[in-house]
């Protein structure tokens, strides 16, 4: 699978959530030959949650208990940026509508500069209404809010002076001399599996962040992305696809050999980028690195 650019989730939540261990993990992952390192975004683990985790939440276990311990994604990316030289650094995904566009643009620019132009900004909507309540952001209209956020980010990254005026945000025209290394701006990737999310990828994004599903399901979803891109006058062939695989005990993908098999299937389907989240398999950061080494060997073999 030499054509596959393989990434790992940084140790960010559950038993692996130790900010002091992130830099060492990132440097070791780069030395093992990983192409990218990724963070997620979880703000709350409510006692009585508004919604169940869409990845298998139940009434007794509405979300993975690991979510109660979660390192800030920007802290994790900053630690990784300072400890590495070549790996891409991405989010899969930030809960976009919860962020102020002007603050997010500044943070993303700073990370892109710190890393020498290695940032991939992945955005999504979050499935948990409680996070919107906690940050004072309306749940209704969140899709349109994410659309506008992407447009505002690109304006702030490229226009001079830059500003924005709408019912959601009033940003006075201002000078932004701090500019990303990547031109015209860091890639904006979008996660999600709904039709609205897929059409957003085609219309606005630089790529898609899908979770691993049966090949025929992903093909149907990609057809929606392709159609939306063509309708928007864009070339779907320029869009990236970064497959996410979340192995866990008792799941269909429960071991490193299962991950390797799923990665081989993804390559056969035309995917050239993937990331693996080892949080549910690893007991601690050291164990996560052992699994990462085992995975690299399995993929190379």
Automatic annotation (TrEMBL):
<dbReference type="InterPro" id="IPR019921">
    <property type="entry name" value="Lucif-like_OxRdtase_Rv2161c"/>
</dbReference>
<protein>
    <submittedName>
        <fullName>TIGR03619 family F420-dependent LLM class oxidoreductase</fullName>
        <ecNumber>1.-.-.-</ecNumber>
    </submittedName>
</protein>
<keyword id="KW-0560">Oxidoreductase</keyword>
<keyword id="KW-0288">FMN</keyword>
<dbReference type="InterPro" id="IPR036661">
    <property type="entry name" value="Luciferase-like_sf"/>
</dbReference>
<feature type="domain" description="Luciferase-like">
    <location>
        <begin position="17"/>
        <end position="264"/>
    </location>
</feature>
<dbReference type="InterPro" id="IPR011251">
    <property type="entry name" value="Luciferase-like_dom"/>
</dbReference>
<dbReference type="InterPro" id="IPR050172">
    <property type="entry name" value="SsuD_RutA_monooxygenase"/>
</dbReference>
<dbReference type="GO" id="GO:0046306">
    <property type="term" value="P:alkanesulfonate catabolic process"/>
</dbReference>
<dbReference type="Pfam" id="PF00296">
    <property type="entry name" value="Bac_luciferase"/>
</dbReference>
<keyword id="KW-0285">Flavoprotein</keyword>
<keyword id="KW-0503">Monooxygenase</keyword>
<dbReference type="GO" id="GO:0008726">
    <property type="term" value="F:alkanesulfonate monooxygenase activity"/>
</dbReference>
């Amino acid at each position: 699978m030499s054509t596959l650019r393989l990434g790992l989730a940084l140790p960010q939540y559950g038993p692996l959530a130790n900010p002091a261990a992130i830099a060492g993990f990132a440097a070791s992952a780069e030395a093992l030959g990983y192409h990218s390192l990724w963070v997620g975004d979880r703000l709350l683990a409510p006692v009585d949650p508004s919604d169940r985790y869409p990845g298998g939440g139940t009434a007794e276990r509405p979300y993975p208990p690991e979510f109660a311990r979660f390192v800030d994604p920007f802290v994790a990316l900053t630690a990784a940026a300072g400890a590495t030289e070549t790996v891409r650094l991405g989010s899969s995904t930030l809960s976009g509508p919860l962020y102020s566009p002007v603050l997010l643009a500044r943070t993303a620019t700073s990370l892109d500069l710190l890393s020498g132009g290695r940032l991939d900004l992945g955005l999504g909507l979050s499935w948990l209404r409680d996070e919107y309540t906690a940050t004072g952001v309306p749940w209704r209209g969140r899709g349109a809010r994410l659309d506008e956020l992407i447009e505002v980010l690109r304006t702030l990254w490229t226009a001079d002076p830059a500003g924005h005026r709408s019912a959601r945000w009033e940003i006075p025209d201002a000078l932004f001399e701090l500019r990303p290394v990547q031109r015209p701006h860091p890639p904006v990737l979008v996660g999600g599996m709904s039709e609205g999310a897929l059409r957003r990828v085609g219309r606005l994004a630089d790529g898609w962040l899908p979770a691993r599903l049966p090949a025929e399901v992903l093909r149907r979803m990609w057809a929606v992305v392709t159609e939306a891109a063509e309708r928007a006058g864009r070339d779907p062939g320029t869009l990236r696809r970064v497959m996410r695989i979340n192995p866990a005990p008792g799941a269909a993908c429960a071991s490193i050999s299962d991950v390797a098999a799923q990665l081989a299937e993804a390559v056969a389907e035309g995917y050239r980028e993937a990331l693996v989240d080892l949080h549910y398999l690893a007991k601690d950061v050291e164990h996560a690195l052992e699994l990462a080494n085992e995975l690299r060997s399995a993929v190379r073999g």
